[in-house]
Amino acid sequence: MAETIRTSEKPSNSSSLNPPSRIICHVCQKQFSQYTCPRCNSRYCSLPCYKSHSIRCTESFMRENVVEELRHLQSDDQTKRKMLEILKRFHSEDETEPLDEDVDDSILSDDTIQKILSGGEVNINDLSLEEKKRFQRALAAGELSKMIEPWDPWWLKPAARTICLSKDGAQLIQPMANREDLESDQPSDIPCGPKTPLPSLRKLISTEPSPLLAVHLVDIIYSYCFTLRVYNGDWQSDAVGSAMMVLSISSVLGQAGQPETVQEALCYCLEQTCSPAYRHIGGLQFGLALVDDITNLLSLGSPALICMLCDLQRMIMAAERELKSEKQRKLRKSETKSKLKLAERKVYFIMCWVHEQPNKALSSLAAIVSAEKSSLMEYGGNKSFPRTEKNVAGNKGKALIEEM
């Protein structure tokens, strides 16, 4: 039996007994139209007909709704705002391109749009197959990097030279009346120092601290600068990933290594930077630039170094908290937590040691690092560095710190 189509004849006069004429849906030609497209004035009867009547209209409607919702996002949710802004820019670039009436691959899926509008996070698995391909092509071409504002390391800012801490190493308490005046001298992007006084080394160990701690400080600074530059200064977006990256670069924190010279410490870090896991980031040139970061931080003196180590400690502790909420195999999770806990204790001990070091000693260490960079640049055309495995694995049983 053929499907019936409801129609009506157009009467000459309209009244309560003789209703006005009704227009058939322009899409299905079966039902009476109840709506009008605000863009093309086409009449349609239902949502499916609206979606199929013109891809130009539906895509424009979807984009305008997403953009309008982006404008009403809360300004304090920085992570979601950055991600949604990148999505908005990425999709707005397609508005100038010619559209294909037969292909519906340039708009986000309904589920993804609903997730964005509800304030949820969107990852690569939420995109369609075609959207994933386009995203990967843009990523490979470096187009997405233009949408990210470059991060300026806090240790290169003039305010980093004016960091002040109390005599016991804790951060100073600033009166509310002077807070606005101090904001220009010490911006919020400079890490805060410890909230509590740092104990004396005599309370932590029963013997004299090892002279190799200066070398270990170089290793730790390199891994911190490496991670912050890779994460564009925002380690809070992935505390676990940031902390594990620090442990993978640092032989002291991640491998229980004990390099005996500055050259050995730098060579190990450069080897990790040039390894297959990280060589795409910048290779040797990127690593040599990080050596300059070490020199700059050491030149700032103990206040800046304490703030740096305190920031690294907060990163590791945040990773420990996030790890508790993640679902992993118990054995692997236990091993990771043990590594993070041991690394956090080492960072705290180094922080206490730095607090007792005179700035003259730190300046001398900066000069040694600068001199080692000149010798390491000779390896610019060679992928090999002086071997450091004996300090990574051979010295694991040698304790530097004896706890009371």
Automatic annotation (TrEMBL):
GO terms for molecular function: zinc ion binding. CDD domains: zf-HIT_ZNHIT2-3 (cd23024). It comes from the Eukaryota. PROSITE patterns: ZF_HIT (PS51083). InterPro entries: Shq1_C, Znf_HIT, ZNHIT2. This is Uncharacterized protein. It comes from Gossypium arboreum. The lineage of its organism: Eukaryota, Viridiplantae, Streptophyta, Embryophyta, Tracheophyta.
